[in-house]
Write the structure tokens for this entry.
Amino acid sequence: MQNRESDTPARPERVRKLKRLILALLVLVMILPMIASILMLIHIHRLNRQLDAMKDQVALLQQNREADALHAEDAVETQTDSQADAQMDMSIAADGKDGGNDAAETTQVDPEEMIDPGNDARQSVTEAKTTNPSENDAKVKSCKVYLTFDDGPSSNTGRILDLLAKYDVKATFFVNGREGPISESLYKRIVDEGHTLGMHSYTHKYDEIYESKQAFIKDLERLQDYLYEVTGVWPRFYRFPGGSSNEVSTVSMQELADYLKEQDIYYLDWNVASGDAMGTNLSAGALAQRVLGMIGEEETQVVLMHDAADKSATVDALAIILEELTKQDGVEILQVSEDMDFEPVQHLKSNE
Ligand SMILES: [Zn+2]
């Protein structure tokens, strides 16, 4: 009885609680699947995006398979490059305290971009922009874009040639002297596929090339003869290692520029530095963004890139750049030829 007396007033309360519980459970049973469905949809969307990105990567990797076979040779070539860069770093570093081999190998700073006069200003402008390349659309007006690649050939050269073929675009390769069948086949590919084969010194060793006018001529002739022997093409375009405005040459750059003119060789600098040789290891997206951000600023735009063995990000950036630029109506992508207007892209101003 005692139990019943105490139970009786509590019963409606319990029933109410039970009812609320059942109601809450019902609501949960209805809402939970909805939430789960929404979460799954979001997840599926994300996975689809990842899948698309991976498909792109697979396509790129397939293109690169052939190039991967060249890595063994490049290891040797890169070592030579690093030695050259180390010498360069030592001579141009302001304090030079850590300009040893280690520093050169990790930073790989190419003076070609360090001395670009407009580089810093342009970089800050570009960095301020968002990462969506299409936002540059409004800025692009009618312009001629010359894509140039220095320091090759290397395993990345083949990948670049594949990309250029995919987009049916011609470019210019300012090459160094690299011996062996793999490099020779790449020089030939450049020529056979209709690109411009330019010169960028045989050794790329600043202290040797710029030691004297005679040393410069010797290096130039060595490369010109070698390329002619390999490809049958007499190269007539030159890019000075470090650019014509470099401050490391012990010879007057004007004197060297005049010499090239006498030889009917056209030299070319750049006004769009991709940033792939600044030693900061920019991502492909960042490199592409820098380049696309500058396209449309001048009527003639020469883009400086590097097809050295350690510049894989440049290749991935090129894929983005080509995808974007080939969509732009006002942009014409051309290869360096005698018809182009060289003057806007020569850092060194002619005395004549
Ligand atoms: Zn170079």
